[in-house]
Amino acid sequence: MKEEFEKLAAAGKIEGRHVAALTHLAEAGCCTHRSWGFGRIKTVDTVFARFTIDFPGKPGHPMDLAFAAESLKPVPKDHILARKATDLDAVRHLAAHHIDLIKIVLNSYGGKATADQIQQALVPDVISDDWKKWWETAKREMKKDGHFIVPLKKTEPVVYQTQETSLQDRLLTDFRAAKGLKARILVVSEMLKAVSDLKDKVATATEVVGVLNPDIVSHQRTQPAVALEAIFARDELCHATSLTPATDAVTAAQIWSQDGIKFGPLLESIPAAKHHRALESFKAANPDRWVDILRGALNFVSAKLAKEITNILINNGKLDLLKETLSKLISQHMASSELLLWFGRERNEDYVDILGPEVFRAMLTAMERDQFNEKRSNRLRDFILEDQQLISELTASADIEVIKDLTRALKLSPVFDDMDKRSLLARLVKAHPAVQSLVSGEQTRQDSALLVSWESLERRRQEYQDLVQKKIPANSKEIAIARSYGDLRENHEYKAAKEMQKILMRQKEDLEAALNRARGQDFANASTEVVGPGAIVLVTDLTTNQAETFTILGAWDSDPDKGVISYLTPVAMALLNRKVGDEVEFELHGGKRRHRIEKIAAWKTEAPAVTSAA
Fold it and tell me: Any idea which fold 535-602 has?
């Protein structure tokens, strides 16, 4: 074709400087354009001086030769893109030979390419099924081959080298070059995957362990989580290579026994894949205390870690103690949003005696608490919205009065926007048509007012003042500062500040509505004839014959440790307007039981002096 292009240049149809470029394009038969992508040259027309090229979405596209010389780049015949275009079936056949296909891709891109580039070249034309499985197999084969450098980080390129290097040498080179204990742990993880292919396992492990042990010592106090992870990697390597550990090496038990170790935060700092191993090591290091410590940590860890903690408790026969902990946290509305997220996902027949409407009320309380503490509870909120069966399952066997109370709580909750709230209320109505009137807005006069103690009313007023005078003005300043950064479409600081503004304004509206409904009370001289707000009620559990005392106060009063409960709680509502000797049924400690009212006393026998709270 070179002679043909030279004739065109002599005739003045193309410029002489374009001859070489056009010759390369014609010989290659394939090309790339910066906008149209890969193309296959179908014909060369020397009469009209143009190519006909098939581009994706532009088949048979004519292109002037001069323009082609300036805008196209030739793609060699052995390039992966050219081979796919000319003989796709042959390339697909090569997919069974992982290394051969990877070598073609790497050579196409100058001897190296990232995992994303390789995937883009092969999926879906060549590999249409499970790419992840194919790629994992390819990586294992490349690591064994000796000609490939497979990086630990996905963003770094896979490199093909003509000189072969043994797997053991490459891993040791990576280990020696790794900066910091965390990076060394990653290399050891790769060694463990390929330990059977190492030529001299003991020599490799000896060198690695000799470096890890001093690193563990230097990290055990400053970064105990990293030190613990390194101990696990070291011990696994010793076991896999039959290397005897040093007698003076730091152990996992020594990490756990250090002063100032915080169990939950340390575990959260360890990769999730190591949580089970870490919990087992903690159990071994604390044979007498591990159950109580794990139960105590449940309410302060992520949902993922909560699952691991509950698994180890159940597997060691501690299901009853676990249920006791869950029941107490849920009934007292002290359960965290992460714990409730795990519980909602996990709900099964093991927890049938705990699952009920009080779980959903605890979820609302947790999300409201997170919102006012400026923590994010989106994960639990999103779960509630996505799980279509959650509300109906939790309320399936509940009394209608409990369902009505739950409906009121959901209507007043500030954690859902109007559309989401309507969706959840619709699920309640579908499961319990009797609450339709509450959802449609027909509320009694009693529903419109909240009886609250002066102390709790003052706390809410202070909360409102703090919101209006501090948090909202501070947020306005953040918005102004973020706006000054320019280009609001890409301004993440501005978007975050505006999102916080929505939350704060919603909190303001909700607090205003609650304060408007609040009616302050001192709950003095309450009647002792029947149970009402301001009463101390002594009851006996007719099943266990144990006594319980409840102090029934305002809507915002709650101190479970002292037996103080709101008059709106299910327990209080079951007791209201009942007399001494009456038997009532309500849920307590995770079970529904009958109780007998033994005594009714007044919380206060006289009103306090008038204060500014009035």
Answer: Chitinase A; domain 3 (3.10.50)
The contacts found for 128-137 with CB under 8 angstroms, 24 or more apart, are 134/95, 134/98, 137/98
The pair of structure tokens assigned to 434 is 């009797």
CA distances from 407 to 40, 344, 413, 447 (A): 65, 19, 10, 12
The encoded tokens of residue 231 equal 């101990």
Q: Where are the beta strands (DSSP E) in 143-228?
A: 148-149, 158-160
Rounded Cα distance between 192 and 233, Å, is 8
Each residue of 475-526: pLDDT tens digit? 888 877 877 666 555 667 777 887 888 888 778 777 877 887 888 888 887 8
Alpha-carbon distance of 567 to 449, in angstroms, equals 13
Give residue-wise pLDDT tens across range 108-123: 998 999 999 999 999 9
Domains of the chain: which residue ranges? Answer: 2-74, 80-160, 319-443, 449-521, 535-602
Q: For the whole prediction, is pTM greater than 0.70?
A: no
HSE of 580 in the Cβ direction (CA atoms, 13 Å)?
10
d(CA 344, CA 367): 14
CATH 3.40.50 for domain 80-160: no
Instruction: Return the minimum-mean-pLDDT range out of 113-127, 231-245, 389-403.
Output: 389-403
Cα separation, 428 vs 392, in Å, equals: 7
User: What type of residue sits at position 127?
Assistant: I
Residue 261's SS3 state is coil
The DSSP code for 278 is H
Rounded-to-integer distance, Cα 334 and Cα 362, Å: 7
| % of the chain with per-residue pLDDT over 70 | 94
Task: Work out the pLDDT band at 187, boundaries 50, 70, 90.
Answer: very high
